Amino acid sequence: MSENTEKPEKVHQAVVTPQSLSFLEKYINNSSPTGYEAEGQKMWLEYLKPYIHTQYVDNYGTAVGIINPDAPYKVVIEAHADEISWYVNYITTDGLIYVIRNGGSDHQIAPSKRVNIYTEKGVVKAVFGWPAIHTRSGAEKEEAPTLKNIFLDCGCTTKDEVEKLGVHVGCVITYEDEFMVLNDRYYVGRALDNRVGGFMIAEVARLLKENNVTLPFGLYIVNAVQEEIGLAGAAMIAEYIEPDVAIITDVTHDTQTPMINKVTQGDLACGRGPVISYAPAVQHNVNKLLIESAEKNNIPFQRQASSRYTGTDTDAFAYSNHGVPSALISLPLRYMHTTVEMVHKEDVDNVISLIYQSLLNIKDGQDFKYFK
Length: 372
Known about the structure:
Blueprint: H1 18-29, H2 38-48, E1 54-57, E2 63-67, E3 74-80, E4 85-91, E5 96-102, E6 114-119, E7 122-129, H3 133-136, E8 151-153, H4 159-164, E9 172-175, E10 180-182, E11 186-189, H5 192-210, E12 218-224, H6 232-241, E13 245-253, H7 262-265, E14 275-278, H8 284-296, E15 302-305, H9 313-318, E16 326-333, E17 341-344, H10 345-360
Parallel strand pairs: 3-12, 3-13, 13-16, 14-15
Antiparallel strand pairs: 1-2, 2-12, 4-5, 4-9, 5-8, 6-7, 6-9, 7-8, 10-11, 11-17, 14-16
Helix pairs in contact: 1-5, 5-10, 8-10
């Protein structure tokens, strides 16, 4: 929460509509692995289309919706579209498949998961196999899942069978899991990191249109690719747009569940509001804009110290074009890089509201210079 010790006296008002929730479900259930985000980007641009004036897609798939494209002063709101995944790395003679990471995929959650292997012939279904508990008894120490021993089984018994399905080294793989609402309180699914961010910035565009807001600047709504492998998409699109200011949204860790150390990870919780970060890449005056917008509109928020870097696209935008004043709004999330990522519905509404209100407080040509 903010530094105010009294809880804000405000009844929560939902921002996400049933229609936009339907889009979120479709968007999360669609696969957009790093480097292969095309279908998700098409879906996102189609949803965004009624709320923007024009759009742009770069050579690697970063999608941008633009309001007031001719305005000289440019503001970016940004999220990333890609999700973690796997690559086929080796096919054995008896038809089993070993994998390598595409992004920060967690090998420990892999056993018994269902997956989709994407081939030129279509999707091939497979599972991450694992020896039954009965067969592991008697060992002094059970072998844990590692990149060296997790494998896929697509029901084939020879390498030739696998290859006839269209599977080859380099095919990308994603988990098969469906979006759901848990206890009418949480959105749950794989790849909420960070397609929920793309959803939230699209909702900001919807609110601007529905509330007949005329912005005095150009707004670039950016859904970047390849964040999971080093912020690559953001780095490319920042050079193209040359923005005057950037507000980035991504997820951060809820630290209230077991086995997380608050001393090192901070004290952050789903349901307490958006997280405003402190890091060298976060420009003080843009951060001040976010905090003032939250306090003025009674939006609860939390604070996070991100040390040397944020690890998000904020770093890419901040250090582009001789320095772009940038700040980060994070959404608390449980179980990151698993198939059951969880975010609180009210936090999603409040991130949308905070970005929206912050945009309303930016003036044409506003000076975010370091010294005021």
